[in-house]
Each structure stands twice: as structure tokens, then as C-alpha cells.
Write a structure and sequence with these properties.
- Keywords: Membrane, Transmembrane, Transmembrane helix.
- It comes from Furfurilactobacillus rossiae DSM 15814.
- This is Membrane transporter protein.
- Helices cover 77% and strands 0% of the residues.
- It is globular, with a radius of gyration of 18 Å.
């Protein structure tokens, strides 16, 4: 089963890279005349996906770089962020599946659930009140972060050693992953939510990485193909950032191999609080 998932990830990565390569070939003049600095974008790509491999949102870091430098227009920012991430995500997923031990059934079930949510949800998710969803998720992430922090400080008994889910826990996990895949369509990332779920269900926190990266690789690829089809992305920035992002991922995987659960736990706490803060901040900016 694990081999099958690896095969699917590799096929998706190769097919998507070929698809983007063909688009770049057809629009080479546009790429050649782009004003974005090649070296700057390459170095940024390595940094973005090095941090992403360690669990820091590539969307957040990319936006923080591309917006003030004006390398990418606001209109093409969503497409650029999605397209540049597919190949690095595939590499992350393959690397984590090989490094992190997790029950194959649990891995496949949770990954498939996230993809199903991302594919089937758009017609339903767009009807939900986005502000309410963000508010509840932000509060939930704070609560999850506080529980994990209490565990690290030995204020409560900590969990997080299991490598598999079964029965009701697996059903709950799959249901939540469907929801997280759906929420991606309104701009809410799945990493913090997935890690919070992993903790709540008693799994080893490292298990969040292959689950989240595999789910992201497959679900983002589907949406990104539409951005490529309509040409609604910055071809030069996305292609260079993706190419050099592979280097960042490889370095990140080597660093990650020396991580321990305690380090990951503190990293997760930071991600949960950071994501929650961003959600509350976006709510304050859009208050009517």
C-alpha cells in the first residue's frame, strides 16, 4: 500500500512537471522578459521550501517575500503559490514516507480523505460563512496548542506514541481530514489542523508530516493544473522557485532526519499559535 502511494505521488509529480514544462516552452518569451530576478527567486525558493519541509507554511513565507518585492502581481499570487509547490510537495511526501514510520492503512486513509475533501467540497464550502469557520478554527488551534504546551511542561499527561489508528479513531480522523481538505478551498491551510488532530488522536507527532505532505501534494496538483491551463500564474517565479525549492527540500529532509519528538512538539506549538494569530488577524482586517 505504501509502495502504491509512492508510485502515485511520483507519477503525479512527473506528469505535473511535464505539463508545466510544456506551458513554459509555449510561453518562453514571457518567461525570458520577466523582471523578477533569477538569483533572488532561486534563493527564495530554497528558503521557502526548506522551511516548508520543517513545517513552516510555504504560502506564508512566499507571500511575505513576493508581495513587498513585487515579483508577483496580486492577481497571479494564488496561482504562483500553488504551482510552485507541487513538485516540492511530492518530494517532501516521498521523503517523509521513507523516513517516518506510520501504519500504511492509516496513512492512505487520511491522505485519501483530505484529497476527497479538496476535490468534492468547492460547491459546498463556498456556501459556508467563512468568518465563522475561521473564528472557530482559530479558537480550536489555540486550545490544541495549550494542551500540547501543557503536555510539554508536564502539567498533564502527554500522549503521542501510536503509529496507527483503528475503529472510531480512524473514522474520526478521516472525517476531519475531509473537512480540512475542504477548508483549503477557502484559504485555510491543513498543516496546523492536521498536526492538532494527530496529537488529539494520540499519534506520534512526526506522523503529521507524511500525512500532510502527501495530502497536499495530491490535492494541490489538481487545483494547480487549472492555474496552468488558464495561465494565471507567474511562469518564471513559479518554475524557478519550484526547481530550486527541490534543493531546499533535500536539505530540509536531512535536517529533519535528526529531529526528535520534543523538537517537533515545540515546532507544532509555534505553528498552531502562529496560524491562529494569522486567522484572527485576517478577521480583524476584514471586519465590517
Amino acid at each position: 500500500m505504501r509502495t502504491g502511494l509512492l508510485a502515485v505521488l511520483i507519477i503525479v509529480g512527473v506528469c505535473f512537471a511535464t505539463y508545466v514544462g510544456a506551458d513554459l516552452y509555449r510561453h518562453w518569451d514571457t518567461v525570458r522578459h520577466s523582471s523578477a530576478p533569477t538569483i533572488g527567486v532561486a534563493l527564495s525558493g530554497m528558503l521557502i521550501f526548506f522551511l516548508s519541509t520543517l513545517g513552516v507554511s510555504d504560502f506564508a513565507v512566499s507571500t511575505a517575500i513576493y508581495t513587498p518585492t513585487k515579483w508577483v502581481s496580486v492577481k497571479r499570487l494564488p496561482g504562483t503559490l500553488n504551482v510552485q509547490g507541487v513538485v516540492p510537495f511530492v518530494l517532501m511526501a516521498v521523503g517523509f514516507i521513507g523516513v517516518v514510520k506510520v501504519d500504511p492503512v492509516t496513512l492512505l486513509a487520511l491522505v485519501a480523505a483530505q484529497v476527497v475533501g479538496a476535490v468534492l467540497s468547492p460547491r459546498f464550502v463556498v456556501k459556508l460563512p467563512e468568518r465563522t469557520i475561521k473564528r472557530w478554527i482559530a479558537c480550536g488551534l489555540i486550545i490544541a496548542g495549550l494542551f500540547i504546551l501543557a503536555g510539554r511542561l508536564h502539567l498533564i499527561a502527554g500522549n503521542g506514541t501510536a503509529l496507527r489508528l483503528s475503529g472510531l479513531s480512524l473514522i474520526v480522523g478521516c472525517g476531519l481530514q475531509v473537512l480540512y481538505g475542504a477548508l483549503n478551498n477557502i484559504g485555510i491551510g491543513s498543516y496546523a489542523l492536521t498536526t492538532a488532530t494527530i496529537y488529539a488522536l494520540g499519534l506520534n507527532p512526526l506522523v503529521a508530516f507524511p500525512i500532510m505532505m502527501s495530502g497536499s501534494a495530491l490535492s494541490v496538483a489538481a487545483g494547480s493544473s487549472l492555474f496552468v491551463y488558464y495561465g494565471d500564474y507567474d511562469r518564471k517565479v513559479a518554475s524557478i522557485a519550484s526547481l530550486f525549492g527541490v534543493v531546499g527540500v533535500l536539505v530540509g529532509l536531512m535536517v529533519f532526519a535528526h529531529f526528535n519528538v520534543a523538537i517537533v512538539s515545540w515546532l507544532v506549538i509555534g505553528v498552531l499559535f502562529y496560524t491562529s494569530f494569522n486567522l484572527f488577524y485576517s478577521l480583524s482586517r476584514t471586519r465590517h
